[in-house]
Amino acid sequence: MEILTTPQTWPFGSALALMVALAVIEGMGLLLASSPSSWLDGLLPDHPAGVDGPLGWLHLGKVPMLVILMLFLAGFALTGYAVQAIWHNLSGSWLPTLIAVVPALFGGLSTVSALGSLLAKLNIGDETSAVSELSLIGRAGVVVRGTAKAGLAAEAKVRDHHGKANYVMVVPDMDDQTFSEGAAVLLVKKVGAQYRCIANPHPELL
Q: Which residue ranges make up each domain of the chain?
């Protein structure tokens, strides 16, 4: 098809090629027990501004970085091709590349926002299971939402031994303690669906 070979659509073809390359790299990494997506997630700070800040709609920290990147590339490429196809049908010519890229960028970001929200609700980035929940005991984390105090749980971000981010509910192990957002904590036991935590005596563990 002409739309796939015309020079004005090269950014969108490159985006699709990058998607395939990332998928291949991730597949090879899984075979070697070294997931590149976990490495990307490890680059995020323990309390990224994207979780609750202005960039929260990008779902940083709630959806794996590789998934966010793939969603953006897919939305970018499909929107770009659609814009060029519509313009070509109307005018018989192709839009200049720089002009076609603008709506494609919005398409990519919109895809991340819409589908990322769905994936975040499905907890695609949370690999916590009945077994791994217990393995989080003794792991360091940071409170990312709410204030943990007696009778009131807060959400904390804890990385497992694979470097994967897990979001868990924590309460202080001692009733006279309070942990606000940004506090470094250490999980010491699990009671029901919540973890009991203490102040992390070694914050450098994060």
A: 2-121, 130-201
